[in-house]
Design a protein that fits this description.
The chain contains 14 helices and 3 strands.
Length: about 280
């Protein structure tokens, strides 16, 4: 116990200034953190995974503890311009009440603080774990609405063609797919944007762990986009087929929600398969 206390005191004393800066950072960014929290836990949130991102980032840093233990620690003045730029962006965001840029300023300040207190060698070691934090910052709602609209229209269009090829007569009117005995509305929740955001975060980790050159990692990360879109179209076709054969009530409730989990599981398996093929 005494050894543990001494070890803890040594860590605190060696990192007193960074810890003090981290405390000030958290206090200053409390409004932004509260905004992100509200977006993470909002009804039909696209960023319900956001609360997990800092923990995943921390785990990825912990995995590099042996490399960080031998990495040279040297304060770098290059971090100060990043800190100043981030603070100015935060003040601008607070003045005009732009939450998204306020979140991005947090991102910039974190990079600056690590560079300033620990130097470039340490920053390079944890560049991806820090960069991974970008997935916890919600996009502006106007961007969410715009992207979601385009994705649901695309999903409805492709699903209509597939249903007709399957022998199920279907006609599309906007995001509504009309069949002989039922119709399916591809709304914002079924646009596939939620899966796309979550899958890109997961795909970035897969790419980070991939043993191979950067171009292979880039290819793996980019495959998350078609995988998310294709699997979501499969979900729309599935729900439309169930509605047409067994009635609209059969495609609602449990079946609707369960299909979302199953499709994401399918996307995960496909992403894992692609990573194995590329590797």
């Amino acid at each position: 116990m005494d050894f543990n206390k001494m070890h803890l005191k040594k860590i605190v004393s060696n990192h007193a200034q960074p810890l003090a800066a981290a405390l000030v950072f958290l206090l200053a960014y409390t409004p932004t953190l509260m905004w992100m929290w509200s977006r993470w836990f909002a009804d039909d949130s696209y960023y319900s995974h956001g609360i997990l991102i800092p923990f995943v980032s921390g785990f990825l840093i912990w995995q590099k503890k042996e490399e960080l233990a031998v990495a040279p620690v040297k304060e770098s003045r290059l971090g100060m311009p990043l800190i100043v730029a981030g603070v100015l962006l935060y003040l601008f965001s607070a003045l005009f009440r732009i939450n998204f840029t306020g979140g991005l300023s947090m991102f910039v300040v974190i990079f600056g603080l690590v560079l300033y207190f620990y130097g470039m060698a340490v920053l390079k070691k944890i560049l991806f774990p820090i960069g991974f934090l970008i997935f916890m910052f919600p996009l502006p709602e106007v961007a969410i609405v715009n992207i979601s609209f385009r994705m649901k229209m695309f999903a409805a269009e492709i699903a209509e063609k597939l249903l007709n090829h399957m022998g199920i007569l279907a006609k599309r009117n906007g995001s509504i797919i009309m069949m002989r005995h039922a119709q399916v509305v591809v709304d914002d929740v079924c646009s596939g944007l939620r899966s796309l955001i979550s899958l890109t975060a997961l795909g970035s980790i897969f790419a980070f762990w991939l043993n191979g050159p950067r171009w292979k990692r880039g290819v793996l990360f980019l495959t998350t986009i078609p995988i998310a879109i294709i699997t979501n179209v499969c979900r729309v076709v599935f729900l439309a087929t169930v509605s047409e054969i067994w009635g609209p009530e059969s495609a609602s409730g449990f079946v609707h929600d369960a299909s979302g989990f199953l499709i994401f599981a399918l996307a995960f398996v496909l992403l894992l398969g692609v990573s194995k093929v590329i590797e």
